[in-house]
Amino acid sequence: MINSVIEEYRLKIDSRLDMLNALSDQPYDPVVEAGRYSLFAGGKRIRPIILLEFYKLFGGEDDCAYNFACAIEMIHTYSLIHDDLPCMDNDDLRRGKPSCHKQFGEGMALLAGDYLLTEAFGVCAKTLGLPSERVIRAISYLSSAIGGAGMIGGQVIDTAVSIDSEQMLFKMYSLKTCALIRAAAVCGVILAGGDDESVSIAENYAENLGLAFQIIDDLLDKEGNVDALGKPIGSDEKNDKTTALKLLGVERSRALAEEFTKNALEALDRFSGDASNLREITQMLLVREK
Ligand code: GRG
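Above: the input record for the complex with geranylgeranyl diphosphate. Below: its predicted structure, written as tokens.
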């Protein structure tokens, strides 16, 4: 049941992404081509789906939030392209295919990430049919979530700060991984006109989901299957990354992933609307293989 819901979302998200990133027979098409290569390499589309589910949960109707949801996927893809670059994690494989810089060269991959990030904000601004105050508030939330006090800040801690405590590890996860997931959930609530209390429950849900999601990502990096995962195993070890696995061991990591998932599900219980799809997605992500 949830698989068909996800598939339906995926088709609509992909078709909107296709339209928003069309080639235009211009000399700068190569950067769009490189962006499209990574956009359509087979990502799970978790973040846009979360946004659209929260939008629906708070009474959002029709397709008004699709541009915003696609912009979040464009931002996510930019972060993966840049993260794979030789100056970052130097990974050759992503989503089962050569990473963007392996296919198009470092310069074009850098520009493809910049292209996706920059265009994403224009796409957000073209969220038509909703009150402009909601759109501006959502854009402001999103930009903070991916900036210095958000995803970029998390990447700085991950790459340039010594992580020697559980507290610092979770601070890094909260920024690097949870922040964009949090933006997806919260922007869905804001765009649908949800109140401040709902925003803060959505934040709590997404923070817990993001922590569980990152711990599972760490476990898959050690125990996963390279074909299912579509990226190399052992990348964290290669880059001498401090992960939950390294700091806490397999058992405690798995127990924490379960605890964070339980917290996320409890947050969903606080909404009066039908959160059954979000509930199933949350449970599915705990046992994912990719
Ligand atoms: C801006 C360079 C830069 C980095 C920001 C987000 C990030 C920090 C780096 C990307 C790599 C990474 C390990 C991110 C943590 C979040 C995560 C587990 C991403 C993978 O997300 P999935 O599993 O990927 O949703 P798909 O391919 O399914 O979209």
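Notes for the reader.
The mean pLDDT is 95.
DSSP finds 14 helices and two strands in the chain.
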